[in-house]
Amino acid sequence: MEREQIRMLDQVSVDIRQPDDDLVISIRNEMERISYLHCICKVKDSLLGTNGSKSYIPDQVSVGPYHHEEDGLAVTEEQKWQYVHVLLSRKPNLEASLDACVTALKEVEHRARSCYAGGIDDRDWPSNKFLTMMLVDGCFIIELLLKYSIKSLRRRNDKIFTTPGMLFDVRCNLILLENQIPLFILQRLFQVVPIPRQCIYTFAELCFRFFRNMIPGDPQINREKFSQEAHHLLDIICHCLLPTYPRVLPPKESNSGNKPLPSATKLQDAGIRIKKARKLNLLDIKFDKGVLEIPPIVIHQYTETLLKNLIALEQCSSHVQYITSYAFFMKWLISEDKDVTLLKKIGILINCDAIDEKEVKKVFDKLDEANFPVKEFYHDGLREQVNSYKGTRKWRQWRERQRHRNPQLCSVLVVAVLALFIALLGTLFSVLSFSLHRSNTS
User: Fold this and answer.
1) Calpha distance 60→73 (Å, rounded)
2) What is the pLDDT of residue 355?
3) 12-26, 39-53, 72-86, 344-358: lowest mean pLDDT where?
4) Range of the domain at 228
5) Residue range 321-354, pLDDT digits in tens
C-alpha cells in the first residue's frame, strides 16, 4: 500500500512558474492608460472667443506641464520650491522624505503621462524632469492646503497669504483646466510626505475647505462629493455640481424643436411662476404645474472663470454636458437687465458686494461668446416642458381665472368700453346734427 502511494506521488508533476513581471506590468500600464487617457486636456480653440485665453491661462502659479516655467510665473516658482522644502523638512531626514516621494511617483509615472492630451514626449519631458515637476507641483498644493486650514503653519513673509488678493488669484489658477495634475498624484504624495501633527483632516477635507466658497450648492453635499473619485481638482468641483434629480427626457415628437426658453420676465408675464428651489444643487432645476424652480447661485468675481473652465472640461469629453446646458438655460432666462432684477428679487441670483449688479448679466453673456456646440443638451426635456406648457388649455384657464380674480381690472375695462361707446355716440349725433342743419339751410 505504501509503495503504491509513493508511486502515485512520483507521477504528480508540480508546475511552479515565476510570474511574468514584464507582461503583468504591460497589461497594467495599458489598463491605466485607457482609464486615464486625456483626462487633462487643453482648451479648444473654438472656446477662446473674443477674450482669447484670458480665462484659461494661469497668471500666478503654473501646475502641470502645459504652462511650466512660462514668463511671468518665476516669482511663484520660487515660492513653490520653498513650500516643498517646508513640507519635506518636517521630519529630520529630508533625503528620506524626498526618496519616499520619488519612489511613490515612479510607480505612477506612466499613468500620469497618459492623463495629458497630446502626450508627454520623453524627449521634451525625460523621466527626471517630469517626476521633479510632479513632485514640486504636488507638494506645493499639499502645503498650500495645509497652510490654509492651519494658520499656525503660515510664516510672516509668506507672499501668498500676506499679499492682498494673491491667495484669491492662486485659488483661481488652481481651477483652470490647463493647470492641473492628476488627483492620484496628490493623493499618493499625501500618503508619504510628513504631515504636521496639527493636521486633523484627510486630503479630501483639506481640498474641500480650500475650495468650498467657490462651489455653488449645499456645503454638506459638496463635502461628501469631495471624497469621490475624480481625475483632478477641477473634476472634483464638476462632480459637486451634477444634478441629483432624474433627467426629464423630451418626447419623441416635439412641437417646439430647439426653440430657446423665453426670458424670465416673459415667462412670468405668461403665467409661469418662477421660484427659488429649496434644493441647493446648482443643476437641480424643476418644472411642475406651471412652477419653474431654480436653485440660487452666488455670483462672485471667479464665477465666470469657474463656469468657463467647467464648460471647457465638458467639451473635451463625450459625456452629457451638464454645465454647458446650464449656461444656455441661464442665458435664455437673462435676456435683459429687468430679468436680472426679477431673479435677484426672487433670490435665484445673488451677487456679492464685489460684483456690480450690471455685471451679473455679463457673466452669462460671456459664457457662450464662443458659440460652443452642445452635443447633448441636458435640459432639453425641461425646456420642452416649459415651452409646451405655454400653449396648453390649462394655461389659458389660468389666465382666465387671473382676470376674474381682479375685479378692479374688470371695472376699469368696463368703464373704458362705456366711455368709448359714449364718445362714438356723441360723434355720431354731431355728424347727424350738422347734416340736418345743412339740409334746412339749403
Assistant:
1) 6
2) 66
3) 12-26
4) 28-241
5) 889 889 889 989 998 888 988 999 999 988 765 5
Question: Same structural domain for residues 176 and 285?
Answer: no
Closest CA to 217 of 298, 149, 299: 298
- Residue corresponding to grid cell 416642458: 385
Same domain, 184 and 283: no
Tell me, yes or no, whether 47 lies in a domain.
yes
Pick from 86, 107, 117: nearest CA to 29: 107
User: What are phi and psi for residue 146, nearest 5 degrees?
Assistant: -65, -45
pLDDT tens readout for residues 420-434: 667 676 666 665 665
Q: Which three cell numbers stand for residue 53?
A: 485665453
Q: Is 107 inside any structural domain?
A: yes
| 83, part of any domain | yes
* Ranges of H-type helices in 37-93: 74-88
Same domain, 292 and 167: no
Are 287 and 382 in contact, with CB atoms under 8 Å apart? yes
- Residue 286's DSSP bridge partners are 293
> Could you tell me the pTM of the whole model?
0.79
Is 201 inside any structural domain? Answer: yes
The full 3-state SS of 199-243, as one line of letters, equals CCCCHHHHHHHHHHHHCCCCHHHHHHHCCCCCCCHHHHHHHHHCC
Q: 222 and 98 share a domain? A: yes
Q: Kindly give the pairing relationship between strand 349-351 and strand 286-288.
A: unpaired
Model confidence band, residue 105 (pLDDT cutoffs 50, 70, 90): very high
CA 274 to chain centre: 23
C-alpha angle 54/58/62, rounded to 5°?
A: 160
- How far is the C-alpha of 50 from the C-alpha of 366, rounded, in Å? 9
**How far is residue 428's CA from residue 431's CA, in Å, rounded to a whole number?**
5
Rounded to whole angstroms, the Cα distance separating 311 from 368 reads 10
Where does a domain end: 241, 272, 307?
A: 241
Local structure of 411: helix, strand or coil: helix
Find residue 288's DSSP bridge partners: 291
Together in a domain, 270 and 213: no
166 Cβ neighbours under 8 A, 6+ residues apart? 60, 159, 160
Residue 170 is placed in which grid cell?
492662486
Same domain assignment for residues 208 and 306:
no
Q: Indicate if 171 and 313 belong to the same structural domain.
A: no
Which residues make Cβ contacts (< 8 Å) with residue 380, sequence separation at least 6?
Answer: 250, 325
